[in-house]
Each structure stands twice: as C-alpha cells, then as structure tokens.
Amino acid sequence: MGEGTSLFEDAPEIDLSRGRLDLALVRLRMAWRTLRDGWAVFVESRIGVLSLAIIAIFALMAFSHPILMATVWTPDVYDPVTGYAFDRFEHPSPPDWRHPLGTDSLGRDILSQLLFSTKSEFILGITAALVTVGIATTVGAVAAYYGGLVDSLLMRLADLIIALPGISLLIVLSALFNLNLFYLALIIGVLGGFGGTAIILKSQALSIRVKPYIEAARAAGGGHFHVIFVHIIPNLLPLSLLYMMFTVTGAIFAEAVLSFLGLLDIRMSWGIMIHTANTGGYLLAGANYWWLIVPAGASITLLCSAFYLVGRALDEVVNPRLRRHDR
Amino acid sequence: MTNYLLRRSGQMVLTLFLIVTLAFFLVQAQPGDYAAFYSLNPDIPAEAREQIKASFGLDKPLWQQYLIHMKNTLTGNFGVSFGHYPRPVIEVLAERLPRTIVLFLSATAVSFYLGFFLGKAIAWRRGGVLEYAATISGATLFTAFTPAFALMMIWIFAFKLGWLPVGKFLDPLIWRGAEVTANHVFSYMLATAAAFVVFAFLTLLVARKSGRFATGRLPFLIIAAGAVAIPVAWAFTGIGYLALDILRHMILPIATLTLISFAGTMLLTRNSMLETMREDYVMAARAKGLPEKVVRDRHAARNALLPVITSLVYSLIFAIDGSVIIEGVFSWPGTGMTLLQAVRSEDLPLVMGAMVFIGLFSLLAHVIVDVLYVYLDPRIRYQ
User: Fold this and answer.
1) From CA A76, how far away is CA A139, in angstroms rounded?
2) What are the two backbone dihedrals, phi and then psi, of residue A239, each rounded to the nearest 5 degrees?
3) Distance from CA of B359 to the nearest CA of A (A)
4) Average pLDDT, integer, range A210-234
5) Residues B272 and B308 sit within 8 Å (Cβ to Cβ)
6) Low-confidence spans in chain B with pLDDT less than 70
7) Residue B81 backbone phi and psi in degrees, to 5
8) How far apart are CA A224 and CA A136, in angstroms?
9) Domain locations in chain A as residue ranges
10) CB spacing of B320 vs A249 below 8 angstroms
11) Contact assignment for A163 to B317 by CB distance below 8 Å
C-alpha cells in the first residue's frame, strides 16, 4: 500500500513481532492465572490432594529402583526377574532387614519387584492416556466442528466401541497374540480414544463451537484447521486432562488383570507378582504368606484409586456446577 | 418413541454384525492356521473332520469363508468345540448363559439401588463424615484389583469363617443321589424369580393405580407374604435342598460383584444430585415447606436419576467385564469362565462363540437401558 492511500496516516506504527510477543505474554499470564485459580479449587478437595501425594510417592518409588540397583542392591540377589536370595534357605521367606518385603516362591526380592514394576505401570498408564486423549480430543473437536456425516460416522463408531466389553476383548487379544506393554497401551488408548471419551469431549466441543470467538475467528479468515487446533482444542484441554486420569486407572487395571491371568508378554508387573503367588498355591494360605499378595494388590488398588480420585477432584475444577461455592 | 426404539435396534443389529466380523477376523489373524486347527485335532475322527471342513468351507478363500461363517452364525451354527468335543459350541454356551445372566442381573440390580440410595444421601449432606467414608470406600472398591479382592472375599467368608462354599456352581456330594440335572433345577429357580418380580411389580402397580390402597403397608405385606411363600413351596417339591445348594454358591460371587460396582452409580448420582440441587424447583419445594425427605426423594432425586440412567451403559459394561473376572476366580461356570478357558486351551470355535455371546449380552443390556430411558424421559416418550 502506498503512503498516500492510507486512511490512517497518523496511526502509530505497529511492530508485528513485538505484538506477537506481547500476545504470547498475555496468554501465558492468563494460563498461569487459570492454573492458579484451578489449583485453589483443587486444594479444597482433601481427597484430591491426598491422592496427588500418593501418586507422587509412587513416582518416587519408580525413580528409586535404578538408584538402589546401582548403589546398595547387587543384581545377582536383587534383580526383579532373575535374582535369587542366596542368604535364605527356603522361599518364600518372610520380611527381614535384608529383604523388607520378603521373597517370592522363586527366591526373588519382593520390594525390588514392586519398585521395578512401578515404572512400567506409569509408562503404560501415561502412554495409554496420551493416546486416548490425543485421539479423543481430535475426534471430538472434528465431529463437533463439521457435524453432519463426519459426526454421525465418528459417533456411531464410538457407540460401537462402548458396546464392546473391553476386558473380554483384551483377554481374547492377549491370548491369541503376543502383546507387550507398548501394544497393550496402544490398544487401550485407541479403544478409549474412539470410544466413550470421544463422546464426552464432543459434547463439550459442541458448546465451545457456538461461542462468539469461534465465529470471530472464522470471520477474521481463520481456516477450519486453524479454528479446530487453535481455538477449539485448547479449550477442550482441561476436560481432556480429567479423562486422562480415568484412562490411567483403566489401563493399569487392565494390565493387572491380564497379567494375573498370565496372558501378557511382560517381564515383571504387579499383576504378574500376584499371578506367581496364585500359581504357586499361596493365595488361600492368606495371612501366612501375606507379603506375596498384599504389597502388589495394595499398590494396584492405591495407584488406580489415586488417579481416579485426582480425576474426580479435577472434575470440580473443570465443572463449576459441582463446586461448593461460586467463584 | 417407536421411531427412536427402531433406530436403536437397527444400530444394535449392525453392532452385532460387526462383533461377529471382529471375532472371525481376530481368530483368522492369530498366528497359526484355523483350518489346520480343525483338521489336525486328533480328537476329531476323519469323517467328522471332512464334514466340518465342508460345512465351514475351510478349503475356500478367506472372503468366502467369512460369508459362510456369517451364514452359519446367523443360523446358530457356531461349529464344534475342541475342548468339549463332540458338543456343539451353541449347546455349551446355551447351558452356561443363564448362570451369567443371573449373576449379572442380580448384582446390577442390587448395586444400582445401593449406589443410587447412597449417592443421593451423600450429595444431600455434603461434606459430612458419611461423604468422605462413602467416597473413599466406594472408590477403593471400584478401583480395587478385582481378582485380589474376590480372593480376599473367598479367604474371609469361605476359608476362615467357613460360612459359604469356596467356589463352583454346586457341591457334588449333595448332588450325588439327585435324579434331576443342575440346569433343570436352575431353570425352575429362574422361573420362580421371574414370577416373583412380576408379582411384586404388579402388586405395586395395582397399589399405585388404586389411590387409598397405596398409602398403607398392605402392598408390602402382600409382597413379603409372597417372598415367604416361595421357600415354603420349594421345600415341598423335594428338590428344595438342591436349589438351596446352588443358592449358597451364588451368594459370594453376587456380593463381590455388587461391592465392586456400586460405587460407579453412587459417585455419578452424587454429581447429578449436586447439579439438580441448585435448580429453582428444589428451592421452590423447600420454600413451600415440604419435609426435607420429600424434597430430596421426590423433587431432586427423581430428576437426578436421568443422567445416571444414561450412564448406566458404562456401568453395565463394567459389570459384564467384572463378571468375566469374577467367574474366573470363583470357577462359576458361566459364559465368562467359558471364554477364559477357551482362550487358554485355544478352543477357537468356542472363543468366537463366547465373544459373540458376550457381545450379544451387552447389546441386550443396552436395549433394556434404552427402553428404560424412553419410559423415564417424557421428552422422548411424547415425541
């Protein structure tokens, strides 16, 4: 545009790159404020904070295993799969100061198995949750934005997946094929992502789609792709985070059940620890061999319910209608 | 309303079709040849082998096999089980399906009622001790590792206390001299239970229609009299002790399944109630001076019920999956345990059959929820 043709001759010159930086800063500040307000609501729920602490403890446990293996534990004795406690004459042996949770029927240290498995549970849960939420958020946003045929197809697919009994399907899959941790996480993620989570995120996306700022973005010349990924999906993220928590619970639970049935191709996990105790015939011995079942069983229940309860506390942050008082 | 139900049933048929397809291709895709499984199984005599090969078209290309399989499935021919040779798959499954249905239905009914009752109570008195206790214990049971929890129940009630049998469907020692089969007795028990439910429902319906009668205790007394009459009648049939044996074996699995699944309904009802309690009509009901209990049960809880019913499909699937695990742990010979045994022994025809049956089962549960939803939601009923 030439100098003479401009309508706003005395308008201040705008440095576009500087404006972008300012915009980014404003967005960052707003995100920070949302986070801080959300945290304030989250902290009100005592159960939520307690559960978060439990998750943090499990995370510490996961980190502690490689450190312990490198420093005080010799691999010959303490390896979770191939170790053998030479210092005991019979296995399973009860807890003492060298083996704080005792040994299993094959002479392996239970505490080492427990700590080693924690890492894989986290990897499994988080991978499954990321896959689920990645797919579900995209599917939900796309279905809500385009509507029509795309919407019907995706939602009928979701209805179909909801109707499938997941654990039964996973039992068949893991029995017929060699599933390892990664494939399991992928399958759980895909099933969840195209299933129930997609429906919930779509209904949320529908209410975002009719907001004025979406129309404004379209009027300003934003393409479909731009509107979906820059305007709709970021507003779906809080709800996505919530459903990530529930997916983690489901994934850890599914892995434990399949391992318990002895159907997975995994070296060590909490489910396998109970499976070992079960096939050895120690389960109905109950309190006599408690260290074979209680640590693994309690870990599964604790970690699953911690993620689940954090999800429920987040629900009160995301859904203002559930809050105790308005903010 | 008819439109809605027709559309839903159309979707269900499509879903069933896809489940059959999925089961077929999963079994085809697994390492190892399905046709070879049939023809190499030494338990199957040569002439039967040829007959099976021909009827399933195992020498034909895959797409033709698929079409034949679909036709066979639709006509109820699921093939012959490897593990239970020479019994056909459909016979094995038909024998076991009622046991799963009973386990699932009674656990779902009890856990739904319990969950709804507790959910509205903890929402009404928010922040109380009851809420913390119910939320934590509910969520713990809900996310508890089902096999370990079931084993703990067995250990406590069957092993330590010795009140109930450890597992299985019946006690062979009691049944040794019996002249009737277990399924025979079980189907009579099912018929009795169904008749009782219809009787109770009709009594309540008549009571509600005829005004004054409803306010008294009479309908409940009639139902209670019916409940007392049933065991007395069974005691005179001569097979009452056999029915009692099955009943004793049922208690522990049903209780376990109920305990692990009530929390879903409870926590959902709580959230739904919290949203409903903010509505103006609840405040209006309070302002009218209605008793708290009436406001809670008649005004808030009735409206909070609808989203809970909508989400019932999720808890149904949870309960179906849970019953597969529980059947495995309790050795309860239903469809779920059949599936577990079949996948472990590579009894492929039975795997496909059991998958289709479990899928069919969950679809039927969906249809029931849909009908219930239509009945409860006037917006759909009067469309």
Assistant:
1) 49
2) -65, -35
3) 6
4) 86
5) yes
6) 1, 33-41, 56, 211-216, 380-383
7) -70, 140
8) 18
9) 1-42, 61-322
10) no
11) yes
Record: contact A166-B336, CB cut-off 8 A:
no
Q: Which residues contact A164 (CB under 8 A, 6 or more apart)?
A: A191, B19, B317, B359, B362
SS3 for B278? coil
Q: Which residue has the tokens 């679809």?
A: B363
Question: What are the DSSP E strand ranges found in chain B?
Answer: none
Domain ranges of chain B: 95-332
Q: What is the pLDDT of residue A286?
A: 64
What's the gap in Å between the CA of B176 and the closest CA on chain A?
A: 27
Q: What is the pLDDT of residue A105?
A: 82
Q: Which fold has domain B95-332?
A: MetI-like fold (1.10.3720)
User: What's the one-letter identity of residue B207?
Assistant: A
**Is A173 touching B (CB cutoff 8 A)?**
yes
Please state, rounded to an integer, the average pLDDT across all residues of chain A. Answer: 83
Instruction: Please say if the pLDDT value at position A4 is more than 50.
Output: no
Give Cβ neighbours of residue B208 (< 8 Å, ≥ 6 apart): B214
Split at pLDDT 50, 70, 90, the class of A127 is very high
Distance from CA of B86 to the nearest CA of A (A): 23
Q: How far apart are CA A302 and CA A313, in angstroms?
A: 16
pLDDT digits (tens, 9 = 90+) for A147-162: 888 888 888 888 778 7
Instruction: For an interface test with A, give the residue of B136, B145, B157 to mutate (most A CBs within 10 A).
Output: B145
End-to-end Cα, chain B, rounded Å: 6
ipTM score here? 0.78
Give the distance between the most distant pair of CA atoms in chain A. 97
Homologous superfamily, domain A61-322? MetI-like (1.10.3720.10)
Check if A171 contacts B (Cβ < 8 Å).
yes
Query: What pLDDT shows up at residue A59?
Result: 93
Q: What is the mean pLDDT of residues A72-87?
A: 82
Distance from CA of A278 to the nearest CA of B (A): 10
The top-scoring range by mean pLDDT among A130-139, A199-208, A227-236 is A130-139
Contacts of B314 in chain A (CB under 8 A): 162, 196
